[in-house]
Amino acid sequence: MSTVPPGVVQGISPVEAMLAVGLLHEDEGRGVGVITFFRLSQLSRHHEGGDCKGTRLWRSSQKAVPRDNLCRSLAQHRKQVVDKTGSPWKSLETYSYNKYHPMEEIYQWMSQISEKHAEVVTQHFLGMTYEMRPMYYLKISQPSNNPKKIIWMDCGIHAREWIAPAFCQWFVKEILQNYTDNPRISRYLRNLDFYVLPVLNIDGYIYTWTTDRLWRKSRSSYNNGTCFGSDLNRNFNVSWCSKYCASQNCEDLTFCGTGPVSEPETKAVSSFVESKKEDILCFLTIHSYGQFILTPYGYTKNKPSNHEELIQVGQKAANALKAKHGTNYRVGSSADILYATSGSSRDWARDIGIPFSYTFELRDNGTYGFILPEVQVQPTCEEAMEAVLSILDDIYAKYWLSNTAGKVTSTTVLLSLLWLFTSLL
Amino acid sequence: MQPRGQLRSAPRPGPARPFAPPRALLPLLLLLLALRGAAATLKDPGTVDAPEPPSPGMLQQAARAALHFFNFRAGSPSALRVLDKVQEVGWQVDPTRGYQVNLVFSTQAYHLQDRERRLGRCSAQVLFKNQKPGPAVTVRCAPLPEKHMLREDRLLFKQLKQLKGALNVSSIPDDYGNIDPSLRPMWDLAVLGSSYVMWERTTQFLYYYPLRISSVKQWKTSDHAIDFDYIILLHEFPTQEIIPCHIHLIWYPGKWLKVSYHCEDMQTPEASSGTEEGSAVAPTDFSNF
User: Fold this and answer.
1) Chain segment B117-171, per-residue pLDDT in tens
2) How many helices (DSSP H) and strands (DSSP E) are in chain A?
3) Do B177 and A367 touch (CB under 8 A)?
4) In this complex, do B240 and A231 lie within 8 Å of one another by their Cβ atoms?
5) Second label for A303, Cα 20 to 30 Å away, from A21, A212, A238, B90?
């Protein structure tokens, strides 16, 4: 193991910076050693337990500390941090899903959620951002013997679209509050696992809280630190950076990066999704604003093989959404009803074979735009939830109900033929 | 501009081809042409580069431009409308002039809490001029409760005159989308001014929404007008850029709306609307649609 320099994690207090810890651990069975830097307050029980074994730990003072001592002091420090701050919102019971939360609170929420619902939720490391922050997704999975298919949802690929991470948190909350006694949701968990990435562009999201509310891109540095950020939703490996669909100029807000999947955030998501693509049935990427449910593609006006079905399912979802609060969402391919884009995650997901791939553009449609009033968080999330549930219903019916129906039908046909045959004898 | 339902001129695809049908076929030809004219649109499918009907995106563009223009011409911050649904009624391409879209659309009140059940309805003709922004718009909307609007505007005017500390304003709305109730009239007035700018900048491909007032440069009120000088951030599609526009407007309910502006990405000097009389556009009969 090589010496690791102290992690550079911006946006934390100097005291916390001194207590930044680098953990070397295996990355999800890919056999890669990764150094992850955490503030001690971010460490959850999972990391304490699993990662303290067999790992070498450094303090930012670069002195190697005996393993057991550090694990104990990590646990102690964490407890101290929690006790000292003791603000009401730190408890999951008082966490408000009707408000926008800064990244620190979302990290805290993720670890608290996975602790409280440990029987179905686990927090997983996906990769590191440009500014060396850990990207986590939550896996919601009911233990069982049968193999599961996967629903993927990511939020906040564009930093200023605050309503999107709010929706990811809302979605997780709804599933967890209802999976035991709501038959509609509990049946999903019999055959499906949910993978939710609440904030994809963490560096950018933090930047919108600390510096510029309207920042969109990541925070990677170019041209000797004179230009920042790629549009992560132009950076995926699908018709990358084609003319009029993305920009090759770093100054622009649709800058596609220096190459397909050049950005660490894009790499983290696409490696993982690629590795699970056989099992992923649905890829949902949440944005704002505009009030759309968008299907592939943005990079061409051509349609995927299941375009009709995607539109049908999408339209049904938009109807379910509208029934909630009367909001109109339009359904169609990006190239048809919005504008041309290349390198988008949704198009990439479809092209690696994920059948149901949608972009949601949440409220509103121009009155407040990205700066959606907090008072609209709840109704926006409620109606979007109805849309997602509608899509899940259709997916569930297609893969787990129609099989049964199919068997019944073919059995009936066989019996009828037999009867016909015997009656002719 | 030809009335709806009648024959529209098909676009000429280059040098005119000589065409002399046999005399006996002429009446039949005329009949066929008349029948085609009765349909909503007329195109020449045989041409190599025949113009296409407006895409859903283009329709939205046209509707937005029409609505920005309507909001500006109405000159009423309390009567600002936003787009609901759009429907194409016809289209026409003239290579010398540009692409014209005829449409009807429904509208809602600007603020969510003000949304009545009954939607406003508009019909418009929008001509996107070749390569030039600021489409030519003819728009009519109904219903227009003019007296009600004027009353609301006068109330708003009073509130604005009483506003203290307007020059200290740094961000409307704040990062969480909140607007102090006392500042909402200022926001509405700012959006009204930006409607002119957004209409003028709209093309077939570029469109805008107002995001935030980032600063107030000047705020003068008198019995005769509100003189408001501010910077508003416009969100540009599809570039995703944020364009700061410095807008100076002078407004009096039912009488004056004068807007001049300079946006940070502009090469040309300041554009100005001159003095426009704020007046509501007369309602029209929608029974034909």
Assistant:
1) 668 899 999 999 987 899 999 999 986 667 778 888 999 999 999 998 888 888 9
2) 14, 13
3) no
4) yes
5) B90
Could you list the beta-strand ranges (E) of A69-128: 121-128
Domains detected in chain B? 56-287 (3.10.450.10)
Instruction: Give per-residue pLDDT as tens, A179-206.
Output: 999 999 999 999 999 999 999 999 999 9
Residue among A231, A328, A364 whose CB faces B84 most closely: A328
Query: What does the CA dihedral A290, A293, A295, A300 come to, rounded to 10 degrees?
Result: -20
**Amino acid letter, residue A116:** K
Tell me which residue of B279, B76, B96 sits closest to B189, measured CA to CA.
Answer: B76
Residues 6+ apart with CB under 8 A from A305: none
Q: Which two tokens stand for residue B152?
A: 């609301």
Nearest to A196 by CA among A131, A282, A275: A282
pLDDT value, residue B50 = 75
CA angle, residues B73, B77, B83, in degrees to nearest 5: 70
What positions of A carry a catalytic annotation? Answer: 361
List helix spans (H) across A86-130. 103-116
Q: Give me the interface pTM, i.e. the ipTM.
A: 0.77
Residues in chain A: 425
Q: How do beta strands A292-295 and A330-333 pair?
A: parallel
Kindly determine whether residue A339 and residue B57, on different chains, have CB atoms separated by under 8 Å: yes
Peptide bond into B173 cis (omega under 30): yes
For B270, the 3-state DSSP assignment is: coil
Q: Report the DSSP pairing between strands B242-252 and B226-237.
A: antiparallel
Buried b (16+ CB within 10 A) or exposed e, A27-63: beeeeeebbbbbbbbbbbebbeeebbeebebbbbeee
Q: Could you tell me which chain B residue has the CA closest to the CA of A211?
A: B175
Contacts of A253 in chain B (CB under 8 A): 239-242
Give me A312's structure tokens. Answer: 């049908």
